[in-house]
Amino acid sequence: MGLRDRLEVDRLAADRAGSVGVSHWRQRLLEEVNLDELNGLNLTQRRARLEKVTALIVGREGPVLSANERAALIRRVVDEALGLGVLEPLLHDQTITEIMVNGPKNIFVERNGRVQRVDTTFASEDQLYQTIDRIVAQVNRRVDESSPMVDARLPTGERVNVIIPPLSLVGPVLTIRRFPRAYTVAELAAKGSLDEASGQLLAAFIRARLNVVISGGTGTGKTTMLNALSAFVPEHERIVTIEDSAELQLVQEHVVPLEARPPNIEGEGRISIRDLVRNALRMRPDRIIVGEVRGGETLDMLQAMNTGHDGSMVTVHANSTEDAVHRLQTLASMSDVKLPFETIREQINSAVDVMVHLERGPDGSRRIGEIAVADGHGRSGFALKTIMKFESEPIGSDLVVRGVFRRFRLPAELATRLAHAGESVPAIFDAAEGEFREVS
């Protein structure tokens, strides 16, 4: 059954359930079920048990329903008791990458890069608030008028943002970003996100312990690319990951994930990304991976890259590789350690080896737009050399992005460094000279 059909059956079942609605059957379920018994079951067993009890209650007390409507009502009741209610069918649809709830009556989803409205709604604002409370409680966070914004995550890894009145003027706003399963670089190449030769070169960069910055706009796939590249870190290395909300899915055994913490109800106890970066330096990491730098922690991350933690990786919001350099400068200047811009630039110049910039096309496709490497550490300016660039053709009426990946020669210093690490360079990167430019 497709999502549209399933939503329609759910709506009809709720209408046929009578004036008491789904909330009544949920309350009856909670009265009938043995909560102590549920505590000893896993999620699958718990859902099966609740469905069985709900079926008995609806069969005994409910209205006459068709088989499909009865199954839909039972599912709705269990979703309300155990899951996220009307959002559950959307979460089970693997084609949806983002769910946007603008108040109880307006729900939109992103599918294949396009935003579209869905017919399902919450019964009331109170029901939406209950769903929000259920989400934030799972990660020991809260949202109320004194703290009307919160970032959280679902147990299955989806990133959640909530903002409520008085900041939101349309009622509670809930945004859920779904992350696909962890793709490998080979799978991303098969999807057209990069070419095979560039994937081989990026793998060599990671194994050779080059420091990598992944840049791009919102929704370009920075976390997906970071996950894919992290798979090339050798198993014997100790990796410390630092994130606002844990999203990375590293495959290595020796991984220590750290997650920032917001302040408590008294406004105390906040642990920032910067606090975690500083603490990570005392944890004997071989590599540090920061999900995203947004402030003063950038300076600490650059210093870590410069002091024996080669092979570290980080993402940053930016519109190009040059813009990423400027963003790093601006963010590093937000540190409480006041340094001249020239000194910060020297830190960037010494720390960053590779910049991978991601783009998102009007057709929703995500790909690497450019790979640039630092050419000439120690210069007064930061020099970038393009070694791979996606050149798109003019976009037609179908909005499909087409183009080719162009590759260029690596700087001699970088090629030598890879050779000393036992890594080879794909021959296609020796075909032509690359684009060289100073970043002012």
TrEMBL record:
Gene3D superfamilies: 3.30.450.380, P-loop containing nucleotide triphosphate hydrolases (3.40.50.300). Transmembrane segments: none annotated. Pfam families: T2SSE (PF00437). Residues 83-358 form the Bacterial type II secretion system protein E domain. GO terms for molecular function: ATP hydrolysis activity. Belongs to the GSP E family. This is Pilus assembly protein CpaF.
